[in-house]
Fold:
Amino acid sequence: MTVTQTTPEATGIGAIIEVETGAMAHGGHCVARHEGRVVFVRHAIPREQVRVVLTEAEPGARFWRGDVVEVLRGSEFRRIHQWKLADSLRAHASGRLPVGGAEFGHIVVHHQRRLKAQVFRDTVARIAGAALEPEVLRAGPEDEPTGQHWRTRNAFAVNPHGHIAMHAHRSAVLLPVRNMPLGVPALDALALWDWDLTGAARVDVATPADGSRPLVLVTPTPQTLADEARLGRLRSRVRQAANATETEISSGFAVPGPKRHSPARIERITGRTWVQESVDPERGAARTFRVTGDGFWQVHRHAPATLVDAVLEDADARPGQIVADLYAGAGLFSAFLADAVGEQGRVYSVEAARQASKDARRNLLSLPQAGVLNGPTDKVLGSWLKEPDRPASGGGLEGRALDTVVLDPPRAGAGRRVVERILALAPGRVVYVSCDPASFARDLAWLREGGYEVERSRVIDLYPDTHHLESVTLLRPAAEVATATR
Ligand SMILES: C[S@@+](CC[C@H](N)C(=O)[O-])C[C@H]1O[C@@H](n2cnc3c(N)ncnc32)[C@H](O)[C@@H]1O
Structure:
C-alpha cells in the first residue's frame, strides 16, 4: 500500500487524516469523525489525537476504516506494542500492514479489560436495551501482565517458499512469522518457523496447556493433494521435522472434505491424531479430555478451568437435576455438570460436529448420567418439544422438565429458533457463555421478551492483547430474579 502525503482534504485508500478518537466499539476500533463521516480507527485508544492511514475509504461509503500511524497525543494507557509484526506504528513506518490478532497489544492489560467491559455494556444496552454491570475477571490466577503466552491453539498460513506466515489484516498479503508472542512457550519449542512446508496451505497447532504431546496438523494445497509424489514429499518433510524436535510431537495431514464445510479427514504422520487436555477447576475434581485434530477447545491455557468454575457456579446443579449442555464440543462442561448432578441426574451433551461428539462420548465414558446427542441444537430441542416423553435411552427427556440449560454457541450466537425452543422448554436457569457481545445481546433481547432476566453477568478476559472477550451470564425467570434481588 502506498501512503500519500497528508493534505486537509485527503481521501482515498492510503490518505492520512488526523482525528481525535472516541469510544471503543465492538470489533476493536475506536469511533472517530472526519468531515462528518464516521471512521473506525484500529490500534487507537479512546481520547487520543492520532494520524490515521485510511485502509478502506470508498467515496460514497457510510464509514471508512483506518490504522493509527502516528500518535500526536497519546493515552496514559498506551504502551509500546510487544509484537513488531502486529504493531501498526512500526508496520506502516516500514511500508506494510500489521498482521491481525493482537490489535490491543498497544494498551496496558488492565485498561484492555476496562475497555472490553465498556464494549460489552454498550453493546448489550444498544441491542438488548439491558443495563448490565458485569464483573470483570482475568483468565486465570497467574495471568501474564504482558498479555502474552496464552494461546494453546494457533493457525498459520504457509507462503509459497514453504514458511509459516500470517495474513496482514483484511488483506491477502502473507508475512513470514518468526515468533508468535501470544502462543504458549511450547509453541516456540516446535520452531515451526524453521520447517520446510512447501506444498502446504495451512498449519494448525495444538500445544496442550498441561505440556502433553503437541499436534501439528498440515493442510496440503489442492495442487499437492492432486499429486501423489508431491504429497509424499511433503509427508516426508513433516515426518523429518517432527522427529527432529526435542519433545515428542504428533503430526498429520488435515485433508479437506469434498464440500466447502465438510470436516477434514485427519491422516496420521507421527504420534497420534489427538491431544490430551487436563482441566483442574476449583469447583470440581481434575479431569482429562481427548480432542481430535483441530476440534474445538478453549484457546487460553486457563480458559477451560475458569469457564468451568463460572458455569458450575451459575448452573448451581444439584444431585438428581436435568441439565442440557448445548454446543458442548468435546464435553468440557458436560463432564463437570455430570459430576454435580450425580447418577440420579442427567446431562445431555448436544453438539453438531461428529468428531467432537465422538470425543465427547469417550470423555464422558465414566459418567453414565451423561448422554451425547450429535446434531444441530435446534433439531434436538425441537425433538424434545415434539416428543417430551421419549426415553432417555433414545435421547429424550422422559417427560421430565429441564432444570438448567447451558449454552455456548459459536460467534454467530444461538439465533431466534433456538432461543424460542429454550423458552418453550422453560428451564429454571439459563447459563449463556458467549464469545461475541453482539450476537449475545440479540439473543438476550429475545430471552428477556420471553420472560427471563439477567441475575448475574461476567466478562472474562480470555483473549488478552486482542479485542475479543468472553462473557458468562446467568438468566432466570424474571419473577424469581426480582425476588432474589429484592
Ligand atoms: C464455542 S464452542 C463451545 C464448545 C464447548 N462448550 C467448550 O467449551 O469446549 C461451540 C461449539 O458449537 C458447535 N456447534 C456449532 N453449531 C452448532 C449447532 N447448530 N448445534 C450444535 N452445535 C453446534 C461447534 O462445533 C463447537 O463445538
